[in-house]
């Protein structure tokens, strides 16, 4: 069975490049389309959802920075047009699932740090994305930062 549209979720760190390389290889082998998604997490989430100030300026800055970061991250992949680079705003799991559904993706690729112990109990984005995913999910093991 071939995949048709592969969505790579990235936090835009350099350690995510192996994910894109893996997804690209799969896309080439299956003649599939490829897309990137980065989810900007609302400032309010970091503060527990209840912030007594206007965060709209900060949110705009988050978006502007993310737009630049995704463009420079995708620079390495000449085949990835701006239409294949999605920015979303919200909770990563929810937004990645939404984009996968909206774009008819049949595979989501995420990075996994292979956490264990307490870090595993705290959860990871890869675990989160797997639960309730609208399509297959490939967790690519990421190397630990030196
Ligand atoms: P984490 O468990 O948060 O360290 O992230 C593991 C993987 O989840 C990353 O390698 C990405 O594939 C994905 N991921 C994490 N944060 C985001 C984000 N904000 N937007 C899209 N994907 C993300």
Automatic annotation (TrEMBL):
Secretion signal, residue range per the UniProt entry: none
Species for this entry: Pseudomonas saudiphocaensis
Bilayer-spanning residue ranges: none
Record-stated family: Belongs to the universal stress protein A family.
Alphabetical list of PANTHER family matching this protein: STRESS RESPONSE PROTEIN NHAX, UNIVERSAL STRESS PROTEIN A-RELATED
Keyword field: Cytoplasm
Location relative to the cell: Cytoplasm
Subunit structure, interactors included: Homodimer.
GO cellular component: cytoplasm
Stretches assigned to the UspA domain: 3-141
Name by which UniProt lists this protein: Universal stress protein
